[in-house]
Amino acid sequence: MSPPAIPPVPDWRLALARAIYRRALSLAPREGRTALRADMLETFEQLSAEAGRRGTWALARLLGRELLDLVRSARRSPQDDAARPILAFEPRVSGFRRVARSAAPWRTWKGLVRRPGFALVALLTMGAGTAITTTLFGIVDAVILRPLPYPDADRLVTVYERSPLRREATSLVAPGRLEDWRRRVTTFSNLAGSYGESVTDTSGADPERLEARRVSPGFFAVYGSVPLAGRVFVAEEEQPGGPGAAVLSEAFWTRRFAADPAAIGRSLLVGGRQFTIVGVMARAFAGAGTDVWLPAQTPAGMLTIRDARFFNGVGRVKPGVSLDQAAADLAAVQRQLGEEFPATDKDWSVVLTPLKAARVGTQAQGVWLVFAAVVLLWLIAVANVAGLMLVQMARRSRELAIRTAIGASRAEVVASAASDMVVIAVAGGAVGAGVAAWLLRIVPALVPSLPRVAEIGLDWRAVVFASVGTAAAAAVCGVLPALAATRADVAARLASGGRGASRRSHGLQRALVIAQVAMSVVLVGSAVLLLRSYVNLTQVDAGFSGQDVVTFRVGARWDEDRARIGQLQQSLVTRLGEEPGIRAVGFTSFLPFSQATLRYRVTVSGLTGPDAGGALAVGVRSVGGAYFAAIGARIEQGAACPALGGDFKARRSAVVNRRFVDAFGAPAAIIGRDVTIIQAGGPSVIGGVVADIGEDGPASRPVPYVYVCDTAGSWPDPNYVVRADNPAVIGARIRQVVRTLDPARAVFGVTPLETVLDAAVERPRLQAGLLAVFSAGALALAAVGLYSLFMLMVRERTREIGVRLALGATPARVTRQVLTAAGGVLVIGLGAGVGMTLLAGRLVTTLLFGITPYDPLTLVLVTMTLALVALAAIAGPARRAARIDPTTAIRADS
Amino acid sequence: MSDARRFLPLSPQQFHILLALVDQPRHGYGVILDVADRTGGEMRMGTGTLYTAIARLLALELVADSDREHDRRRYYRITPLGRAVLVAETARLEALVRLARDGGVQPARGRS
Questions:
Q1: Beta-carbon separation of B27 and A68 below 8 A
Q2: Which residues of A touch B34 (CB under 8 A)?
Q3: In which element (H, E) is residue A315 found?
Q4: Do B51 and A69 touch (CB under 8 A)?
Q5: How far apart are CA A556 and CA A746, in angstroms?
Q6: How many Cβ atoms sit within 10 Å of the Cβ of residue A724?
Q7: Which helix (H) or strand (E) holds A492?
Q8: Taking CA atoms, which of A66, A307, B21, B63 is between 20 and 30 Å from A609?
Q9: A844-870: string of b/e by CB count within 10 Å (b at 16+)?
Q10: Architecture of domain B2-102
């Protein structure tokens, strides 16, 4: 050979090529050829050495050619190369095509039609499974996994204050302080705030109440989102005294203006002031909550009142700055402010939370819980279909063995056996994905309280999820059982096919059934825990009754003339109180269970409270009229609020709750003492004591509360509460009365109080309900799994059982044997399930109320339920075993 | 001879492998080189094809292992039966070619 013109290929390339070849050789086995493996490697070494001398490219070409040849020659069936004539007169069918042909659609179709019940059950399981899991995945993806729909959303944070006493996790931010922060921080590209306000727009035919957000300068710049149409506010519009401007939400724009671009330039009329519509923000920007954004135009005077906290702060951290750095920066600024304004800022600190965590917050856990439950259920379903498939395979085992014996390769047999399931899985997956697309579209209407609900929809990730799920299901349900059924050696199976000697362990199916039982225990256990927790919630004595009570609101702004609003409130309470059938009318700043509370520290004359300076941290509500009578609260001592007064200079009275009195050591004389809210107005005289009301929700322990019997008009837009004999018809009367008093006022939120209270337990109820449905499904599936496993065992041992019966065993004894076998499976499954439930307990603890996840009664209950269901499931197979007729059983061939 | 006809027709691979072994035993690499050389590079067998065919020929006893103690590589030799089959196949092909010629089928000369 001539000396090489090209430098020889480095050794590692040769080694790599040989390694690949060796691997390919193991992957493409071929009967007969395997014995020559060493020689093949040897020959390839020589070929590669020769090609290597000609360069890397030649080596690569050789490797490619060889791999292709390995695969191609491995696929050919033994008969092919024996008689492959040089002058072939008939086309030969390649091995691959034969495999494909065994799985051909019409054969599959014939197979499915032969077993319509099985096909239908499998198809429904697959379809429903894919639909539900894909839907839940879509929700998990939209709510938890995907970043918020803003540019570089991971740099957005919420900014709140934290009070020195830390009674609450966070407190809203005072506008002046927010402005100080904004000017002094260096790690934020921007900081802004906003607060919600109910406004009444009178530009249309009827007054319409809108959810508005008042925003500080630069609010939209913080989010960095581009408006869908028009523009956001310009600096002029954000200054106090600037022109009125409004940015609409897409939802409101569509609802009111039919998404007409010409809406931009028109005006809203809010409180007699014109707000020109300048732009529209896309639906995803703020979700469902907001109709319109208006500039806050905070007056300069307001910026100096450092105790008026009402802004929700939001900031964008500069690129390359970590959250910790940003938090440290802001904390340092706040310490400075503490020195400059010791009276108002000392000891107040700043709380920074990633915006996503703040938005999704506690809901994430519930979503994960439901998703986990659904995936668990789906696994059970897949396991079950796989089990049913195993039964089918067992029924066909002899046929499969014969096919192997007459020369079909294992691939062909597996393909023909698994093709049914692949077809079912793919069809089920396609149908399921379609249903999921539809479900995802209606989810926002079903659970509007979910955060980020506007972003939910079928996107490519959900489609990938559904496809991968379907493929996995097809593999587990189709290919695995088929492989298992074709693994045993042919001769043995032909010899035994259905005869009594068959004592296969059914290891795979037994494991599947055990897993099903265990997962059912987990699901049923969680469902029972959540249900009992929900029942506990509803049975809490909240100290009031929502029955026959209607609540509503009347549009009013905080910057209106208070005396005028006060007159309206007085007339409204009086006029409604005179209506026949109405027993009591009152109002409160925040309804019980509404999650909204003002918290202050108070002092009481002549008494020393537990906190520093003899003060006490309390929740404060502004109430008026016959509020306590209207909600059915019990006055334990003294009197409820006096009649609603209109004089802002008059001395106010207050009602305190039982917990409040206890906090001061339960003195005998509490009535008549002065209670003073620190930093928020003068003293009020305590006129009465009310039994504790569960203001902060059914799951919270009552805390001390002060109900200030406020002057009419001091809280412009309270929640009115009416107790009536016939609450169903009261809404129309309320509207009429308000119209006669002031036709420009919108009446909104007319709702039975029970509905409002119900909303507080909506989430636990939903979670418990969903889990209950899933666990019922899981129970049914586990029952089917047990049934099919033992039916299969009995069927296979028919001959053996027949022989035993013929030899004198009693049917009772045969039944007992089946039950014992089932009992073993059940005990392992139950044990594993109880273990898993205990392990999973920690995950659900925070969702529970008044019950621990390790509640023994629940575990016993669940175990008993499953045992009963299992017993019912195996009753069939056991009876069948006992009824076997020895004479036919022994003669039967299969 | 009737015994040899049982194996007909041979696949092209089998034919070429037997042909390569007629004059001397060869190892796998040698067979690949000889076949490529004989066909002017037209036929380059991959190892997969080669050894699938060799396995088959070994099973049919048309080819056998050749003992060569001084070389660790495996050599194959043609068996008397293999030789007979090769002769029979050649005769069959010849007969076919004659039939075709008589029928007026003549490959064009000079451009193939």
A1: no
A2: none
A3: strand A312-317
A4: no
A5: 9
A6: 22
A7: helix A490-496
A8: A307
A9: beebbbebebebeebbeebbebbeebb
A10: Orthogonal Bundle (1.10)
Confidence band of A306 (pLDDT split at 50, 70, 90) = confident
The model's confidence at residue A597, banded by pLDDT at 50, 70 and 90, is: confident
Cis before B9? omega within 30: yes
- A888 contact partners, CB below 8 Å, separation of at least 6: A802
pLDDT of residue A660 exceeding 80, the answer is yes
Distance from CA of B111 to the nearest CA of A (A): 22
Q: What is the DSSP letter of A4?
A: P
Which of B19, B26, B47 best tests the A interface by mutation, with the highest count of A CBs <10 A? B47
Q: In what order do the strands lie in the sheet with B63-66?
A: B26-27, B75-78, B63-66
| Alpha carbons B35 and B27: distance in angstroms, whole number | 12
- Dist CA A453 CA A459 (whole Å): 14
- Interatomic CA distance for residues A421 and A411, integer angstroms: 15
Question: Taking a C-beta distance cutoff of 8 angstroms, is the pair A47, A1 a contact?
Answer: no
The mean pLDDT value of chain A amounts to 80
Residue A522's nearest CA partner among A306, A782, A307, A711 is A782
Name the phi and psi angles at A468, rounded to 5. -60, -40
Q: How far apart are alpha carbons A855 and A528 in whole angstroms? A: 10
- Residue A201 tokens, joined: 């727009």
Determine the residue among A18, A20, A39 to mutate to test chain B binding: the one whose Cβ has the most chain B Cβ atoms within 10 Å. A39
CB atoms B55 and A28 under 8 Å: no
Contact residues for A809 (Cβ-Cβ < 8 A; gap 6+) = none
Please give the ipTM for the structure prediction: 0.86
Q: Please say whether the beta carbons of A352 and A324 come within 8 A.
A: no
* Nearest-angstrom CA–CA distance, A198 and A718: 11
Q: Is pTM, for the whole model, over 0.90?
A: no
B46: chain A residues, CB-CB within 8 Å: 65-66, 68-70, 73
Pair A619, A673: CB distance under 8 Å: no
- Amino acid (one-letter) located at A263: A
* CA dihedral (A420, A422, A424, A426) positive or negative: negative
Among B15, B29, B56, select the one facing A86 at the smallest CB separation.
B15
**In chain B, how long is the greatest CA-to-CA distance?**
54
Cα gap A472→A92, rounded to integer Å = 34
A73 contacts B46? CB cut-off 8 A: yes
- Closest partner residue to A69 (CB to CB) among B27, B49, B58 is B49
Count of Cβ atoms closer than 10 Å to residue A546 Cβ: 22
Helix/strand/coil percentages in chain A, nearest 5: 55, 15, 30
Would you call A69 and B29 a contact, using CB atoms and an 8 Å cutoff?
A: no
Q: What is the 3-state secondary structure (H, E, C) of A635-703?
A: EEEECCCCCCCCCCCCCCEEEEEHHHHHHCCCCCCCCCCEEEECCCCCCEEEEEEECCCCCCCCCCCCC
- Which H or E run includes A602? strand A598-604
CA nearest B75 in A: which residue?
A39
pLDDT tens per residue across span A220-273: 999 988 899 999 999 999 988 889 999 999 989 998 898 899 999 999 988 778
Domain extents for chain B? 2-102
CA R_g for chain A: 37
Helices then strands, counting H and E runs in chain B, come out as 5, 3
Question: Could you give the CA distance from residue A304 to residue A425 in angstroms, rounded to a whole number?
Answer: 67
Residues of chain B contacting residue A46, judged by C-beta atoms under 8 Å apart: 29
Task: Answer whether B13 sits within 8 Å of A81, measured CB to CB.
Answer: yes
Whole-Å CA distances, A717 to A558, A742, A819: 8, 15, 69
> Which alpha helices (H) appear in A54-159, and where do they start and end?
56-75, 78-82, 95-102, 105-114, 116-140
- Smallest Cα–Cα separation from A256: which of A242, A246, A271? A246
